[in-house]
Design goal:
By secondary structure, this protein is α+β, with helices and mostly antiparallel strands. The chain folds into 2 domains: 5-121, Glutaredoxin; 125-223, 3-Layer(aba) Sandwich (Glutaredoxin). The protein has helices spanning 26-31, 50-62, 77-89, 113-123, 135-147, 165-177, 201-214, 220-223; strands at residues 5-7, 10-12, 34-42, 66-72, 99-102, 105-107, 125-130, 155-160, 187-190, 193-196, 216-218. Strands 3, 4, 5, 6 and 11 form a 5-stranded mixed sheet that branches. A 4-stranded mixed sheet has the order 8-7-9-10, with helices on both faces. The protein has a two-stranded antiparallel sheet with strand order 1-2. Strand 9 (187-190) and strand 10 form a beta hairpin.
Length: 225
């Protein structure tokens, strides 16, 4: 990315529709640390969104492995064009600002810091719906534990769908949302999508890493080494 500079104590970078990672091998994937990018769009002509930007700054300080990009659509024509591109891609007729974009999620019309923090936590969450005694679920847990340190900003949560009725209902609601069928376990929800079942690291695991790397980039501190 180009044009790295600081504004209002938030990290702002040049434009890229997505932040791409490589991680060609298992060794590289384990060694690299990936930072997720969150873009914050606002219109200073309407509201400078100072409270929300301050809240975003605080959240980024608390959550290691997160890079924030601030876009003022009033100050920069390119920022407005970018909002239009994102809105078109997600089939949003009119993007209501302030809004955040990251990990294949768009959250528009943010009104309070509480709402902002809640939605950021949702975006940065990977939930695996599992069953005790399920060998594929066991392998999933081992795989995610192996790569947890690679994505420090990502929270990983496991929900047991047999002994916990609320977890089962939540899983069923998630698969209906994506018009899928939970034909096998685990069901892994992340980056606004689902991975159903787990074969092995070289296949299913590789696809999960590719998705996470698609929405992240090597952290700046590692690039400088």
């Amino acid at each position: 990315m180009s044009g790295l500079f600081s504004r209002n104590n938030l990290i702002v970078t040049g434009f890229a529709l997505i932040a791409l990672g490589t991680g060609d091998t298992t060794v590289q994937a384990q060694q690299n640390t990936q930072c997720f990018s969150i873009e914050f769009f606002y219109d200073s002509n309407v509201n400078d969104a100072a409270e929300l930007r301050s809240g975003l700054e605080s959240f980024a300080k608390e959550r290691s492995g997160l890079v924030v990009h601030v876009r003022d659509v009033n100050d920069d024509e390119a920022s407005q064009k970018r909002v239009n591109v994102i809105a078109k891609h997600f089939r949003i007729s009119s993007m209501k600002l302030p809004a955040i974009y990251g990990l294949k999620n768009v959250i528009a019309d943010i009104k309070t810091e509480e709402q902002l923090r809640k939605r950021l936590k949702e975006i940065l969450l990977l939930t695996a719906y599992v069953r005790n005694g399920c060998p594929h679920c066991r392998d999933t847990k081992a795989f995610l534990a192996k790569y947890r340190s690679r994505y420090p900003a990502l929270e990983i949560k496991y929900r047991e769908v047999i002994t916990d009725a609320s977890a089962n209902r939540e899983m069923q609601a998630v698969v209906r949302r994506y018009q899928r069928s939970a034909a096998s376990l685990p069901v892994i929800h992340y980056c606004n999508g689902l991975t159903i079942g787990f074969d092995r690291e070289a296949t299913t695991g590789k696809r999960i890493l590719q998705t996470l790397d698609y929405w992240s980039n090597a952290c700046q501190s590692e690039k400088k080494k």
